[in-house]
Amino acid sequence: MNTNKDSYAAKVRMKSIGVMVVLIILTIICLLPIWILFVNATRTSLVITTEGLTFIPSNYFIENIKETVRLNEVGKISYSAWIGYRNSFIITACATVLTVFFASLTAYGLVVYDFKMATPAYTFILAVMMVPVQVTSVGFVRFMGTLHLTDTYWPLILPAMAAPAVVFYMRQYMKSSFPLDIVEAARIDGTGEFRTFLTIGLPMMKPALGVQAIFAFIANWNNFYTPSMILISREFKQYTMPMMVQSILSNDKLSDQGVRYTAIVLSIIPIIVIYCLLSKTIVDGVAEGGVKE
């Protein structure tokens, strides 16, 4: 009997070690490009072009930041990290809040309320999720032009209310871990439907909200395609951070590779900060989703 237990424990231990090795390899594959990006941002252009790849940081990061900031001052390239941060943060923060709130509200309605059109409505949402944004981009831009909303941030913020993928995730989360009895109890106590959603539904969906907030923030912060179509006048004061970075990467007259890498690093710092602040919700969401009643 003890031999069988020892054999089983050894198999479990070997399986755990194998899974850990695979996870470590995947982690290295994911983080290695980001690490190389940060390393190159600390090196001079001459060192990057002559010495090639290295994993050891240098001490030229502050100088690269100063040179990147001075690009617009000396009239070389239209770039300002502060303008990019401001514009991207306004768009991203508003769009993220709208995405998470209205997607949660839609999923709440599909799960809590039993009505005939629930299944067709959910099927329609999944069908919309399959349509690439490039297919509707021409019509979207023409429609925004008809409404005189081009060169404004409204077309970059308001459409965030319709996020089929987020609705799909929130509905699946609620189906697995949202008790409907608590909604019935709130109704018996006389709580209004919308107040029930705000005071009971949203707090209970907090792990899923945090996960989707991270994904929505990253998607909106990195969005270059839609702003480049809507902001047609290309006014410098309206540039988002991806547009700022693109103005550097697409300029063939700028030969300073350290500045190029530094501009990219500056653009991803807010994403890293937001992820670190909300990453605990991912762990909580996975742990809570794995608990079965």
Radius of gyration: 24 Å
Overall body shape: flat
- β-strand percent reads under 5%
Which residues sit in consecutive blocks of at least 5 with pLDDT less than 50?
Answer: 289-293
By helix and strand content, what is the structural category? mainly alpha
Mean pLDDT: 86
Largest sheet: none
How many beta-strand segments? Answer: 0
N-end to C-end Cα span: 33 Å
DSSP helix fraction: over 70%
Q: Count of DSSP helices?
A: 14
Fold topology:
Blueprint: H1 2-41, H2 45-51, H3 61-73, H4 81-112, H5 118-129, H6 133-146, H7 154-157, H8 164-177, H9 181-188, H10 193-204, H11 206-221, H12 225-230, H13 241-249, H14 257-289
Helix pairs in contact: 1-14, 3-14, 4-8, 4-11, 4-13, 5-8, 9-10, 11-14, 13-14
Structural overview:
The chain is mostly helical. The chain is about 75% helix and about 0% strand. Helix 5 crosses helix 8. The two termini are about 35 Å apart.
